[in-house]
Design brief:
Elements lengths: L1 H23 L2 E8 L6 H20 L7 E8 L4 H11 L6 E3 L4 H13 L3 E4 L15 E3 L4 H14 L4 E6 L3 H16 L3 E7 L8 H9 L4 E4 L3 H13 L6 E3 L7 H6 L1 H4 L3 E4 L9 H14 L6 H20 L4 H10 L4 E3 L2 E3 L13 E5 L5 E3 L2
Parallel strand pairs: 1-2, 1-3, 3-4, 4-5, 6-7, 6-8, 8-9, 9-10
Antiparallel strand pairs: 10-13, 11-12, 13-14
Helix pairs in contact: 2-11, 2-12, 3-4, 5-6, 12-13
């Protein structure tokens, strides 16, 4: 009888120990909203891989103040309606902050949902100016804004000697905002805007809009939309025998552009962008690229996915240093105490609007082999 009682006693103690251990073992849950399906799926897949790799490294090093990190992922499909649903689902999953997403109109569909739930949001590839002009105190982004890109675009087009410029966008928040900004700045410089209109994203035939563009006889086309459409424009422009130069905004920075256009059509295409992954030179970036290639066998496709890694890292830094997980406390830390944080894409600080401080934009040209070459 005594032996039975002892056995029961040991079992009870073991059960209590397991229960207490479970109670003491905390997990920090960080959301990731990204396009795992749809036309931007390659960006989303890279975002997922990068954030999961960084989280694994955090956990291997002991977590955040001893707590393990769990990444909770929702697919926004690169679509505003799907993003609103994804954001709503994430708000029910006990997350401390959320990373994402790619595409300004997609991010915009989620902003108020996170704000009303008190969840810190750090966007990655959403550069539209108005996103940070809404006085949403929990909104941040690791990418620059379109007004900065607009200035670089106008400066680049002027430096290249173009006087008669066509501007083509796709009516998304990002593309229309950048097009408007560039148009205003170029007109102030006395440049002639020969064409200003939008295409419909997702179509397979852009010959009609290209014919309109050609009739305007511009010196150059500045396309502010995304890489799938840019690739189609380049290919179909070559097929119609029109050799006008083309400059893209930062959303054309993706190797899939060359796959869609073909090397011959993409040769000479220029675009504005923060440094591509191969040109990131911080010690953190070099270590990260080595680890990424070792795990996945190749480099990330574009810098936008790497900016998701920076979003993860600033969130972890804020939680670790503030020892808080509330959106309000994390936002206060990022705005007032995070200064020149060593990110994968360079130094990171935020202003009172949650915008990243500093100049990131560079000019790239696609060479005959389809590689993206940084211009001096």
């Amino acid at each position: 009888m005594k032996r039975k009682m002892c056995t029961l006693g040991f079992l009870t103690l073991a059960l209590v120990a397991l229960t207490l251990g479970s109670a003491w073992a905390k997990t920090v849950r960080i959301g990731l909203m990204c396009p795992l399906t749809g036309s931007w799926a390659s960006e989303g897949q890279d975002m997922k891989q990068i954030v999961e790799l960084l989280a694994a490294e955090t956990n291997k090093a002991g977590g955040i103040n001893g707590d393990q990190v769990e990444i909770v992922i929702e697919d926004d499909g690169g679509d505003p309606r799907q993003a609103a649903l994804a954001a709503t689902r994430l708000t029910t999953k006990d997350i401390s902050a959320v990373i994402g997403t790619y595409g300004s109109s997609v991010t915009e569909a989620s902003q108020n949902i996170y704000a009303e739930s008190g969840i810190l949001q750090v966007a990655t590839g959403s550069t539209a100016i108005r996103l940070s002009e809404k006085n949403l105190p929990l909104f941040f982004r690791t990418c620059p804004r379109d007004d900065e890109q607009g200035m670089v675009a106008a400066k680049t087009l002027s430096a290249l000697g173009f006087a008669k410029i066509a501007i083509l966008h796709d009516n998304t928040s990002y593309a229309k905002g950048l097009a408007d900004e560039a148009k205003t700045l170029l007109e102030k410089e006395g440049k002639k805007i020969a064409f200003f209109d939008a295409l419909t994203p997702g179509e397979r035939d852009y010959n009609a809009i290209l014919t309109k563009l050609k009739s305007a006889a511009p010196d150059v086309i500045f396309f502010t939309g995304y890489y799938p459409e840019a690739g189609m424009l380049l290919r179909q422009k070559m097929e119609m025998g029109w050799k006008v130069p083309m400059l893209g905004g930062d959303a054309t920075n993706n190797p899939d552009l060359v796959k869609i256009a073909g090397n011959k059509a993409a040769d000479g295409f220029m675009f504005l962008s923060p440094p591509v992954p191969a040109d990131l030179d911080t010690p953190e970036a070099k270590a990260f690229m080595t680890a990424y290639k070792a795990k996945y066998g190749n480099a990330p496709g574009s810098v936008w996915a790497v900016l998701a890694g920076d979003a993860y890292r600033v969130i972890v830094e804020a939680i670790a240093k503030s020892k808080e997980t509330s959106g309000e406390k994390l936002a206060a830390y990022l705005k007032t105490q995070l200064k020149d944080f060593s990110g994968l894409t360079g130094k990171i600080s935020f202003n009172a609007k949650g915008d990243r401080v500093g100049d990131l934009y560079r000019v790239y040209k696609v060479d005959a082999a389809g590689a993206f070459v940084l211009q001096p």
